[in-house]
Specification:
4-stranded antiparallel sheet
């Protein structure tokens, strides 16, 4: 069974909502749509207070090459264009819309009919993806059209679709693969056509045998409609196999160089949710205005997967899953390994919100930190062959040049080091801080 060659751990999967079909979450009373839901420059507002909008209407245009359009996920009246607190409590420029009905742009095809035929040229497919504001749906939120436009001198040879979903608790991708298989496969074909690749792999860990079987069945049924060969690759369960570099190594054996990108080894990686969004954008003229979100936790009455409009308050999802337990200690945006604690549960769902985890006292408590015993476990489990204990110490001592030289930016923030540390040193917290500070220094250096 294929897997990546170095490091990794096996945390409990806790896929509590894996058997729960996707449910449509009711519309919120008011939607808050941040203008920066992606890596790169924030989008620029194209509406003002008092404007009437409908579902799918462009409300903010991309602010640069690495940016993404933003569309209204609801219909109603714009009540404000102002900074609003996100999940971390940081205020970001947003469009606030009072919801009034559910009127959609007439150009959006809302029928359930599968559309397989596409006669668009690769550049036209990329243009439609850009127009629809699609970003990486696995959490990275990198604008998809940028990934599909390799720089001069680089050529995509292999497309890899990420269906691993190795983060504990999260099941939104699993449900997408089961319930929207045909749409995902058509979307995969569209991405492959846009890139001009002849080989595509869909990587799925073997703890999702139903998804593997379903994908293989649909690929076999649609083989004549596909532009090229698609292979579904079962993978050994191992965290963080969903990381781009780990997935590339597991499937192709290619190693992305330090500080490099997948395109440096001829690969492009896209999430299954992104493939679904590409299908809807290209074949249905539907911009990215909603996504599947897992709302879960051991004490949540009804862990679920919700089809949720962008801009919906996280608190609405919690209510729909039975409410917040009285002894809740943390609400995490994402999963327990790479997610971040939220200080504001009225913050909106964004394009990158794959899951919300509600954590009780037992899981939220941290053991007291003790002295590092130099056991080397953090080095052993690091999938990037880094020295997490050293990067942590360099950050604490503010030795930024040494941290940069120690390849701190190669850290994918998977949390394997902190998970395995017997001294309970918050290694990932320190490394994240170090990356932030080193990045500030690099930006200052480049601006001089």
């Amino acid at each position: 069974m294929k897997t990546f060659p170095r490091g990794g751990i096996h945390p409990p999967s806790n896929k509590l909502s894996a058997g729960e079909p996707i449910k449509v979450l009711p519309l919120p009373a008011s939607a808050v749509i941040p203008l920066s839901q992606h890596l790169g420059a924030p989008a620029v507002a194209q509406v003002a207070k008092g404007d009437k909008v409908v579902v799918g209407q462009l409300i903010a245009s991309a602010g640069g090459f690495v940016s993404a359009n933003v569309h209204s996920p609801v219909s109603g009246t714009v009540t404000a264009v102002e900074p609003v607190a996100n999940g971390s409590g940081v205020k970001v420029m947003s469009v606030v819309i009072a919801v009034e009905g559910d009127e959609w742009l007439p150009t959006i095809d809302r029928s359930p009919n599968l559309v397989t035929d596409c006669r668009l040229e690769p550049s036209e497919i990329v243009a439609k993806i850009a127009e629809a504001g699609i970003v990486g749906m696995g959490g990275a939120t990198f604008p998809t059209q940028v990934k599909l436009s390799p720089p001069p001198g680089k050529k995509a040879e292999v497309l890899i679709i990420n269906g691993v979903e190795c983060e504990p608790y999260l099941t939104s991708d699993h449900r997408i693969m089961l319930e929207h298989t045909s749409q995902v496969i058509v979307g995969v074909g569209l991405i492959a056509r846009a890139l001009g690749v002849e080989k595509t792999y869909i990587g799925v860990e073997n703890n999702k045998p139903d998804a593997i079987e379903q994908l293989r069945k649909v690929v076999a049924e649609m083989v004549r409609a596909l532009p090229h060969h698609i292979e579904v690759v079962p993978l050994k369960v191992r965290y963080p196999q969903g990381g781009e570099k780990q997935l590339i190594a597991a499937i192709t054996g290619r190693a992305v160089p330090s500080m490099g990108l997948p395109i440096d080894v001829g690969c492009v990686v896209q999430n299954v949710g992104t493939a679904l969004a590409v299908y809807e954008a290209v074949q249905k003229n539907k911009p990215l205005i909603e996504r599947v979100v897992t709302l879960t936790g051991k004490d949540i009455p009804a862990p679920s997967n919700f089809l949720t409009r962008i801009g919906t308050p996280v608190s609405d999802l919690i209510k729909a899953a039975g409410g917040l337990p009285v002894d809740t200690q943390k609400v995490i945006g994402g999963g327990p390994m790479m997610g971040r604690a939220m200080s504001n549960i009225d913050a909106p769902v964004t394009k990158g919100t794959s899951g919300i985890l509600v954590v009780g006292p037992k899981e939220a408590s941290r053991c007291a930190e003790t002295a590092c015993i130099k056991c080397g476990k953090c080095v052993t489990v690091c999938p990037m062959a880094l020295e997490p204990y050293l990067l942590s110490r360099l950050t604490q001592k503010q030795l930024w040049s040494e941290a940069e030289a120690g390849a701190i930016f190669d850290c994918i923030e998977c949390g394997s080091c902190a998970y395995t540390c017997p001294a309970r040193v918050p290694l990932l917290d320190w490394i994240r801080l170090g990356k932030t500070e080193v990045n500030k220094i690099i930006r200052t250096r480049l601006s001089c």
